[in-house]
Structures are given as structure tokens and as C-alpha cells.
Write a structure and sequence with these properties.
The protein has 27 helices and 20 strands. The structure holds manganese (II) ion. Manganese (II) ion binds next to loops.
Length: 700
């Protein structure tokens, strides 16, 4: 713990005019007030505010801020009162301590009205004087550094979560990347201990192999720059486990694929030198496209300036390089606090100019109608790469930016995601690929069947949704193939007039080098084995002298037959729902059943498989057409619809309500039809139904 004179000396070192007496009185007051209280670490409680003040001296902050650091927990945790603080240390320090205390209260509260009220006060205090936030962040940093002393895992996790969700983004917002990194790293270790341990172990292993790679590369860069007459300070480091973790999450990437685990920083004297250094680096090592960012010509909203690039260094390792001036560097580490140090005596007005997002927060204060709204709005304004949306009941969900209703559904519950068929945003039906924005209220329309659409994978933004869709599609494909293969095998056995017992299957499986019956069925369904090969394996000699048969009954999922395919080849009908009479084409991809599409199917545009000329065979049972029917939203409308379908022998296989508003609803109906002519008759009949507004055939 810093002793009284040490602390004062530290402040004096960067600010000779600092009010020594103020600091001394604060030190003594806080020590007496906290008395014999102890921290979880067993240290006297008093060590905490002093360490916080110490962190603030690293930021070279003024005497009032340091005093606030020393006093920040006295009102909350001791018998000291606001009046006392005001009287003994002046209005300015009093206000700062009050502001920090307000935020501590928010943390402890669950009641949203009081929480909102305290947040309002905190935001006001902060916008009047941003030093409140600096003290609060230093407070949180010290608490995170000593988090491991807390025995209750629940409590540790709660604090870590809050740090990750609120304080790290706030640090980022005011450009204090040094704080942000450390806060995130400490919180990550607590929240994802396994992830942290895995990455740390992996980094250690990489280090083992290459000796001191980081130092070697850094001095290499320095040398290359020096040869071109640029005097630069070059430092390198491994990226922190948390930033590696985030990259892996964001790009769904394996650690092995992440080659850029090292980052280097080049510090030079002035801006022009930054660009010269950039030229030298790009001239020496090839740049990785898409990774170059110039925050000097276009600074971030929080004021951050630097050039970022990634180059392909020797041994094919990607390295990230940041180039900036020393002044920019100091500002990047200390953010707003750096401005403070340079402009001693500045006030809130200065901060507001430098940090336009503070204006956003202030507007939030004025715009919010209710405490809840204030709370939510303030949170919204603090996070930029997230969207916050609500359930119809008003529960808040935090999603990655670019999220869609599907991401929302999966965030609420995986069941909801799996059964999602449509969505309303702010009361209006929207396409599922709609990007959500802050404040949207999202309602998911669900069906009874759990059938995530494979196409979702193309637009979902969250890792959770993507993983769920993939899993489902894989599972479904497997199930379908298995079922189809089972039928193929059974019908083959029927033709060969054998039963599929161990005595026939066992030797056949070993001839085909397959493990079990399931593997055989899958191989047949996936077109990896022909009927002839399987026949031969089941009954050796059975195919001798035989010509391949043209056609076999009921091979596909629907009992339609297709001409132009070799006997026994597995096929399925595409999602464009071709029916006999449509012009069709077969698409063959290695290892998959042939898929039959209508010739005008949109998915054919970027089809890479082999195109086969096919036509409809004699058997047409079970071809399924899909209709979109818009119906007046009135009692009995659905009944008149189904009656018309029944009158025309159209068997309804599936019916899903897609969109519904006050006047209309859209139903998606799958019906079994004989052929195109049959379908045309049905559509004409449906259009005669009074409740029906429109009928269209759906493709894909
Ligand atoms: Mn504290």
C-alpha cells in the first residue's frame, strides 16, 4: 500500500502546484473512516481507496480527482456523510465523491426505478464532470485485480460480467484502451476459465517453439526502419487471450487458423513519419488485404488515432502492426485522462467537445420518458457493436450487431429458434433476414414443427444461431439419407428374394468393408454404392449377365419416378417443389443424392454440380406443390379454403400460417398433386373462394 508521503510525492512529481494539504487530509480522513474494516484479501479496507488513488496518479490526474479516489468509498461504506465531505473537502470533491457513490448504488440495486434514478444522477455527474468516470474505472480496475480473493463464485462472476458489459465498454468509449484491455482480460479469466486456460496454454506452446520470437521480430522491424532513416521505438507483444478469444468467436475460427497472435507497435515523432514508416513496412512485407485502417486521417469517435495494418512476415506468420506518434500512444492508453493531464484545470465542457458521445448520453437524459427507458437508452448509448431488442413482454436481449429475428429467437431459447417461421418487428411482419436495430420489439411467429431453414445460415449474425442451424441441417440430412437408404436396401433384398439377417448382411458388409447396416444404408442413399455392387455383395454372382435395370418402383421420398437416371440411383425433389408436368433437371454432386429442380428454379443460377437431363416417369404419387394463399382474416375463412382443396382431391400435407395482421393472413400450404394440370385446376378453384385474396405457387 502507498504511504501517505509516497502518494503526495507522486502527485507532486507531475503537478508541482497540487494541493498537498487536501491530499493529506483526505488520506487521514479515509483511514480513520474505514477504521478496522477488512477486504476479502485480509488487507485493511483502507488499502483499496489508496490503491485506487495510486492508479489515478498513473493517469497524472489532478489533486481533486486523487482526493476523490481516496474518499470514494467513505459515504457508501462508512459513517461519513455527504455534508461532512462537502464541508471538509469542498463542493467540487463533494460532487465527485457523490457521483462515484451513485454508481456504486446502481450496482447493488435490482429495482429498476431506483436503478434508473441513480443512473440518471450518475450520468449527470459524469457529464458535468467526466472525472467521476475516471475514478469509477480506477475503482473497478483495482477490484478486478483483487477479484480472486472473493470466495463466492457467484459474486465473482457477477462482478466480472458487469465489468465486461458496462465498465470495459465505458473505458473504450473514452479511449482508455489500457484500462479496457486489462478489465476485459481479468473478466474473461473469471467468466471463461476454460477458454482462458486453453488459449494461455496454446500461447505458451507457441512460445516454446520459437524462443523469443516477439523480440526478434521487433528488432527486425526497428532495423528495417533505421535503414530508411526512421528512428522508431518498436515494441511487440502477444495478443491477450481475450482478444484472441474474441477473434475466434467472431469468425468461428479454430486457434490453429489464427496465425496473427503477435502485435507490434511502432512509435515515431510525428504524423508524417507515421506514413513513412507505413511505406517502409509495406515495402518490406506484403500487406494482408482488408486489414489496413487509417485512424489518423479518420480518428475514431472516441478520439483514437493510429494506423493499423497486418503484414505477412517471414515464416508465413501474420503480424499486426500499429503505427502512431508517442503523443497518440499516450492518448490511446489513457484516453480522456491524457487530455486531462495536458490541460490541467479543464472542466466538463472541454470533455464534452472532445467526446461527442457524451452529448448522446446527455440527450438520452432528456429524451427518456420513464426510468426504464432512461436505463435502457443509456445502456444503448454505451454500447456500439451490440443491438438491444425487446421481447413483447419488454425483456431486454443483447445481440451482436447485424442480428436478425432468427438470432433473437435463438437468444431467447433454442426451441424458439428451431420453431421460428416468421417475425414481427414493432408489430409488423418482416422477412426473417431483417437486421434488427436498437430498441426493436421482436415477436417470433412459431410453428409446431421444429425445422430451422438451412438458408438461415446465410444471414444469421450470432454464433449461437449459426451453430444451431448447422446442427439441425446436418442431423436432418443424415436422418433422411438413413431413411432413404433403408428403403433402398429393403427393396433390393425383396428383388433378390433374401432376408436381411446376420447371415446375409455380415459377409456382405465385410465384402464391402463397411462397419454396420447403417453405414451400408447411408452409402446407398448417398449414391456411393450402386445396386449392382450391393447385390453382388449380398448374393455373389447375382448380377452376372444382368443388364442394369432402367427403373425401380418408388425410389425417392415421394413416389414419383424420374426417367434418365440409372437404376437405383437415389434422388430427391428440390425445395422448389417440382411436380409432374414441370420441366425439370437433375443435379448430381459427388456423394449426394441427385436433386431434381424445376428448370426455372432460382437456386440453379449458381449451381456447381453436374446437370442431368431427366424427365418425369409414369409414377406420380406424392408430388408436393407449395402454395402461398392470402386469406381475409375472418372466421371460417380457413375452413372454406380446406373444403375447396378437399373437393379437388388435393391432400394437404402441411399448412403453416406465415404472416398475420388485422386484415389478412398468409398461409403456406403443401398439397399432394398428381401433376401440373391438377395443380392448375386447384389454384383456379381456390381463387373462386370468397375469403381468398390471392393464390400463388411458391418455388423455393
Ligand atoms: Mn471502491
Amino acid at each position: 500500500m502507498l504511504r501517505q508521503y509516497e502518494l503526495v510525492e507522486r502527485v507532486k512529481a507531475y503537478d508541482p502546484d497540487a494541493d498537498e494539504d487536501l491530499l493529506n487530509r483526505a488520506y487521514v480522513f479515509s483511514m480513520k473512516a474505514h477504521g478496522s474494516q477488512l477486504r476479502a484479501s485480509g488487507d485493511p479496507y483502507f488499502s483499496h481507496p489508496i490503491e485506487v488513488a495510486g492508479i489515478l496518479t498513473d493517469l497524472k490526474l489532478d489533486d481533486e480527482t486523487i482526493a476523490t479516489g481516496i474518499l470514494h468509498d467513505t459515504i457508501e461504506d462508512t459513517v461519513a456523510t455527504q455534508d461532512e465531505i462537502d464541508r471538509l473537502f469542498g463542493k467540487s470533491v463533494g460532487r465527485l465523491v457523490d457521483g462515484v457513490t451513485k454508481l456504486s448504488k446502481i450496482e447493488a440495486q435490482t429495482d429498476s426505478e431506483r436503478q434508473a434514478e441513480n443512473l440518471r444522477k450518475f450520468l449527470l455527474a459524469m457529464s458535468n464532470d467526466i472525472r467521476v468516470l475516471l475514478v469509477k474505472l480506477a475503482d473497478r480496475l483495482h477490484n478486478m485485480r483483487t477479484l480472486h480473493f472473493i470466495k463466492s463464485e457467484d459474486k465473482r462472476r457477477r462482478i466480472a460480467r458487469e465489468t465486461m458489459d458496462i465498465y470495459a465498454p465505458l473505458a473504450e468509449r473514452i479511449g482508455m484502451y489500457g484500462f479496457m484491455d486489462e478489465l476485459q482480460e481479468l473478466a474473461f479469466r473469471e467468466l471463461e476459465p476454460d477458454g482462458h486456460a486453453t488459449i494461455a496454454a496454446r500461447l505458451a506452446k507457441l512460445r516454446e517453439g520459437g524462443g523469443d520470437t516477439v523480440a526478434r521480430i521487433a528488432s527486425g522491424i526497428k532495423l528495417v526502419l533505421a535503414q530508411k532513416g526512421i528512428e522508431a521505438e518498436v515494441t511487440g507483444r502477444e495478443k491477450r487471450p481475450y482478444s484472441i478469444w474474441r477473434k475466434m468467436q467472431g469468425r468461428a475460427m479454430a486457434f490453429e487458423a489464427l496465425s496473427d497472435v503477435m502485435a507490434f507497435r511502432i512509435l515515431v515523432d510525428d504524423e508524417a513519419e507515421c506514413y513513412r514508416a507505413l511505406g517502409v513496412v509495406h515495402g518490406r512485407w506484403p500487406m494482408v488485404p482488408g486489414r489496413f485502417k487509417d485512424f489518423i486521417s479518420t480518428p475514431k469517435r472516441n478520439g483514437y488515432k493510429s494506423i493499423h495494418t497486418t503484414v505477412l512476415h517471414n515464416e508465413n506468420a501474420r503480424i499486426e502492426v500499429q503505427i502512431r506518434t508517442r503523443r497518440m500512444h499516450e492518448e490511446a492508453e489513457f484516453g480522456l485522462a491524457a487530455h486531462w493531464a495536458y490541460k490541467q484545470g479543464g472542466d466538463g465542457a472541454m470533455a464534452r467537445e472532445a467526446y461527442p458521445w457524451l452529448e448522446d448520453l446527455l440527450e438520452v437524459l432528456h429524451d427518456a420518458a420513464t426510468p426504464e427507458e432512461l436505463l435502457e437508452n443509456a445502456r444503448l448509448a454505451m454500447f456500439q457493436d451490440q443491438v438491444f431488442v425487446f421481447t413483447p413482454k419488454g425483456a431486454l436481449h443483447q445481440l451482436p450487431r447485424e442480428s436478425t429475428p432468427v438470432d433473437f429467437a435463438y437468444a431467447v431459447h433454442s426451441d424458439l429458434g428451431d420453431s421460428c417461421v416468421g417475425a414481427k418487428v414493432n408489430g409488423r411482419v418482416v422477412p426473417l433476414r431483417t437486421r434488427l436495430v436498437n430498441g426493436d420489439q421482436v415477436e417470433i411467429l412459431r410453428s409446431k414443427v421444429k425445422a430451422p431453414d438451412p438458408a438461415w445460415e446465410g444471414f444469421v449474425a450470432s454464433a449461437k444461431a449459426r451453430a444451431a442451424v448447422r446442427r439441425h441441417v446436418r442431423h436432418k440430412n443424415l436422418q433422411e439419407s438413413q431413411a432413404m437408404g433403408g428403403k433402398l436396401l429393403d427393396s433390393l433384398a425383396l428383388r433378390l428374394k433374401i432376408s436381411l439377417g446376420d447371415e446375409t448382411l455380415g459377409p456382405a458388409l465385410s465384402r464391402l468393408k463397411l462397419g454396420d447396416r447403417q453405414a451400408l444404408e447411408l452409402a446407398m442413399a448417398r449414391n456411393q454404392l450402386t445396386d449392382a455392387q450391393v447385390s453382388e455383395a449380398l448374393v455373389p454372382g447375382s448380377t452376372a449377365g444382368q443388364k442394369p435395370r432402367r427403373k425401380r418402383g418408388k425410389p425417392g421420398p415421394a413416389a414419383v419416378s424420374i426417367h434418365g437416371l440409372t437404376a437405383g440411383v437415389a434422388f430427391e425433389l428440390g425445395t422448389c417443389h417440382p411436380i409432374p408436368g414441370d420441366r425439370i433437371v437433375g443435379i448430381r454432386r459427388p456423394g449426394e443424392p441427385i436433386v431434381v429442380h424445376t428448370i426455372d428454379c432460382a437456386s440453379l443460377a449458381d449451381e456447381t454440380g453436374e446437370w442431368l437431363e431427366v424427365s418425369w416417369g409414369a409414377e406420380t404419387d406424392g408430388a408436393i406443390a407449395r402454395l402461398a394463399v392470402v386469406v381475409h382474416n375472418q372466421p371460417g375463412s380457413l375452413a372454406s379454403l380446406t373444403a375447396a382443396l378437399a373437393a379437388h382431391n388435393a391432400n394437404i400435407v402441411n399448412l403453416a400460417l406465415k404472416h398475420r395482421d388485422r386484415e389478412f393472413h398468409t398461409d403456406v400450404i403443401d398439397i399432394e398433386v398428381e401433376d401440373l394440370k391438377h395443380l392448375t385446376t386447384i389454384i383456379a378453384a381456390l381463387r373462386q373462394v370468397k375469403a381468398v385474396v390471392s393464390v400463388e405457387r411458391m418455388r423455393g
